[in-house]
From TrEMBL:
It holds the Pfam family Recombinase. Residues 10-81 form the Recombinase domain. PANTHER family: DNA RECOMBINASE-RELATED, DNA-INVERTASE FROM LAMBDOID PROPHAGE. One of its GO terms (molecular function) is DNA strand exchange activity. Residues 100-152 form the Recombinase zinc beta ribbon domain. It comes from the Bacteria. This is Recombinase family protein.
Amino acid sequence: FGDLCWKQPTIAAVTDILKNPAYTGAFVYGRSRQRPSATPGRPASKTPVPFGDWRIVVPGKYPAYISWEAFAKIQAMLSDNRADYQRLRGRGIPRDGAALLHGITWCGECGHKMMVRYKGGSQYVCNHLSREFQVPECQCLRAAPIDAAVAQSFLAAVTPAEIEAWSLARKAERHATETLRRAEAQQIERLRYAAALAERQFHRVDPDNRLVAAELERRWEAALLNLRRAEDDLARRAAASGDDARPISPRLRAKIVALGQRLPEIWTDPATRRSHRKALLRCLIDKVVLRRCARDQAAVRIVWRGGATTELTVPMPVTRLSALSRWAEMETRVLELVQAGSHDEEIARTLTAEGYRSPRRETGVLINTVRRIRRYHGLKAVPSQTRWPAVPGCLTVTQTVDRLRLPRKWLSEQLRHGVLQTVREASGRYLIPDTNEALDAIQSLRAGIIHHLDLREHRHD
């Protein structure tokens, strides 16, 4: 056969090896077909035949390196890895781009697969109709908020509680399937009895009674046909269910639960590549359907492996306040809080707690947003305590001096030398009880009636 010559592997050579059925020990004929050329005078072109449509397959002709089942899985992986969306409609291999749902997003408006655009930030774009008919793009959605929402749903789906609920649902489904199969088996037994009864009646009839014999023969054939159909339906449903009816072993279930507990840590680990995160998503998610339901919202439908779906509404960043769905409500609420005496920082915190948000943000209201609304309506800002917040029932040194009309220097010296003792915060601020007893005691200290005052326990000497 010649000398063995080692060469540098190429993508084409490796692909030919992976696609060659001879490594399974099978003889195959009809992997390609001749297609006549549309141009006269040109030779016919050779086109590959899809896997599964080969004309002749004879297994066991050569020594096998791998099984036919493994070869079929490899062909499915190669077909799925191709990014020829328009022709194959495949998901494509997980790549290392920033878009987490690359290859599994579909447009909720026209039903076509969405592409990824990285210019100007990651975006999911439906441009199929634009390329085909030169019409505007169907929709364009920012990828970051959608990716975050889908990832959160994915991590929530693999928690131990969700896995336990899924296990119970699978158990109930298996029980219902077994009940249905028992009912179908009983129906087949009844049909077999009916066919056997029709056969006995036909054999017992007098051949001279031709009309009766013909009717009994017709009944026998109808009973056999019903039995054949019922058996075929049962076999087809059993083949379609396949391995789904098999329960998960306790050992495998324990591994799944342990992985679900560690998955959030693995997901947030900087060492985890984007392609690995995409591969993890595709283990459970079949596709994600996107549709812009409002200028600042996107409707997201996650289709899980097995057919279950999850509906989400994801807030999308916008460029103007007027593009927000709750813009009028937020404006009215800001005016109410300003008139109630709240300052801008407090209004921003209140609006954030009530679920409002600023443009270009997914959650939270910025102080600048509150300030813009207030200034637009010509309202002045309410002064706020910027250094320390007020403490109910207590006075600061400045407030005590203003209340009792005392020299600030004297009160500060009494506090510094320990003559006047009171509560002191970690920030260094002194807090004096706002009570008549405490204020009268400070006046007595100033008049020299007492020489030491401890307001922590309301004692004075």
